[in-house]
Amino acid sequence: FRSLSASPFVLHYPSAMAMQGQDWDTVVIRKTGSKPKTAHDRARAQASGALRIERKYEGGRNRNGPSVNARKIEAETTDFKHRKITVEFKKALMKARQQKKMSQKELAQKCQLQASIIQQYENGKAIPNGQIISKLSRALGVSLPKIPKKKKVKGDD
Q1: Which CATH class is domain 87-140?
Q2: Domain ranges of the chain
Q3: Exposed, middle or buried by CB within 10 Å (0-12, 13-18, 19+), for 121?
Q4: In degrees to the nearest 10, what's the CA dihedral of 70, 72, 77, 78?
Q5: Which region is the signal sequence (predicted)?
Q6: Mind listing the pLDDT tens digit for each residue in 100-133?
Q7: How much is the pLDDT for 107?
Q8: What secondary structure does DSSP assign to 25-48, as a single string?
Q9: What's the predicted TM-score (pTM) here?
Q10: Residues 53-81, mean pLDDT to the nearest whole number
Q11: How far apart are CA 13 and CA 24, in angstroms?
C-alpha cells in the first residue's frame, strides 16, 4: 500500500491490526547522509565524532623500495652473448658443400631447412644448433668440426 504523501520515498505498510503477526513499520528510503560543505562544518562534525578522517600515506603513488636484486644486477660484469659459429666450421661447411657441387638452396632442401639458415651458418652469424649441424654433416657425408661449448666461470652455478 502506498500513500500519496508529499515525499515519494516514504512507504507506509499496513498496521499490525490489518496483518496480525506481522511487524510492519514505516521505512524511509533516501540517499546517504549529506556531507559537510564547508571547512567549519567539517571541523564540527570531526570534533563530534560523527566524521573520522584517515590518511593513506603514499596512497596513489607507485612507491616501491629498491629491488633486492638490484645490487646483484649492477655488479654483474659478465657479457651475455650467444655462441657463434667458428671460422673453421664455416670454412669446412663451404668446402664440403662445394666439393659435392651443391648450392645453398640444394643443401637446404636435402636437410629440410630454409636456405637462409645455410647462409647464416656459412656467414658465421648463426647460433649453433646440434640438430642442424648433424643434419648438415649427414647430408654432406663429412664430419664437420665441433663447436666448443661455453666455459663456465667460477662462482657460476
Answers
A1: mainly alpha
A2: 1-52, 87-140
A3: buried
A4: -110
A5: none
A6: 999 999 999 999 999 999 999 999 899 999 999 9
A7: 93
A8: --EE--PSPPPP-SHHHHHHHHHH
A9: 0.47
A10: 65
A11: 6
